[in-house]
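User: Can you help me understand a structure? I only have the sequence.
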Amino acid sequence: MASDGARKQFWKRSTSKVPGSIQHVYGAQHPPFDPLLHSTSVPKVPTTPLKAKKVSTFQEFESNTSDAWDAGEDDDELLAMAAESLNTDVVMETAHRVLRDHSQRRGQAALPERLASELEPEPEPEPGLELPTAPSGDLRLVKSVSESHTSCAAESASDTVPLQRSQSLPHSATVTLGGTSDPSTLGSSVLSEREASRLDKFRQLLAGPNTDLEELRKLSWSGIPKPVRPMTWKLLSGYLPANVDRRPATLQRKQKEYFAFIEHYYDSRNDEVHQDTYRQIHIDIPRMSPEALILQPKVTEIFERILFIWAIRHPASGYVQGINDLVTPFFVVFICEHIEEEDMDTADVSSVPAEVLRNIEADTYWCVSKLLDGIQDNYTFAQPGIQVKVKLLEELVSRIDESVHRHLDQHEVRYLQFAFRWMNNLLMRELPLRCTIRLWDTYQSEPDGFSHFHMYVCAAFLVRWRKEILEERDFQELLLFLQNLPTAHWGDEDVSLLLAEAYRLKFAFADAPNHYKK
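Assistant: Let's start by predicting it. Here is the structure, written out as tokens:
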């Protein structure tokens, strides 16, 4: 009798939570449970005990649930243990073992299916069909199975295929997008799509009957795609008109005008009045970079003609060292439209037809002239434009980074000793050619980019090397570092960061000149 009483007492329905107990889930697919609308619901237990109430048995409990307890072969073991006086530890250990064995069998049975699903693409669901969801029972069962197995994984050495928590999620959630699992590949794909989109915007803007130059400047500020850079530079520099119908006639007229200058002036290069100018040009060109491009005979002749004609037609300044460097970016951008080499530094012009070279020479001359018209005071007598810009640079750096300014002053390093070349050559001697071209994309998009915005770029460029400058404790070492900055590895991203910082400085100081001074 004692054992019968114990058995009845053990299987008596209690209010405690039992793994696998039926709990209604409220959500989008499960409306709130209404006992008045569901006749199969469990009636409320009366407050007063009834003598005729039938005690629920384990068989009734088993028939109302479908979960990890349906192990089949474990029934006899559970019934036998129920006849004994069990404590909480024994019950929990048995429950963990049953759940672990059950999850192991499920994992082994699902392994071939998982392997097949990874090798084959997942079929698209038909319209009107819903994805399989978790059973409408207690969703905590899935979590409890995963957690119980995780907690017991270290105890059992026979667990070869554990049940993953991700198995409770839809299979499609674990499939990588587009079959691409490499983040770098995905990033490059997104980047190429963005570049293609920007290129389409440029082409649509340039193909219109009247190009909106203001919109073109906005697009060009963050860089110009290589295929449309030649035409964009010609428009932004003011060489070509915005009206697309007038461009061919303008090109033809300007090219004809340039070669009329050649016929009229170039033969005078050996005259006594001009021979010093020509000799200096002839000396400076081989010192330019990139050497692989400049030292080609055809390129050398083109540069000599461009620089000599400009010097003759601008007697107020004449030729000044530094002007020669400003020819290279325009020439390289225009020549790359007709060659296949990706590396601008090693472009070979021998395959370019002579007529095309003549047109490129004329286009380069007029674009350089437009550029120099805005900064000509940099190259007149005593170069007053550069003197003023270097002084403004010194005052600006003293405001934005007093430590760097004081460090240079303590070691008697003067800004003219390193920043003069920055202004004279527009940082062309400090940056690789590819970075200079990217820099000029923004310069031509900014109002007074070469004459005004360049000063803020130089300030950001100097502060960029703050750590290295403060580490140097000697005048000679400081000056050598500032004249040979390590930028050979720089790319478009470095230039973009530099330009962003320069724009921030311009926004803070350009319209408030009193901020320069303490």
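Now, to help you interpret it: The chain is about 55% helix and 0% strand. The chain has a mean pLDDT of 77. Let me know which part you'd like to focus on.
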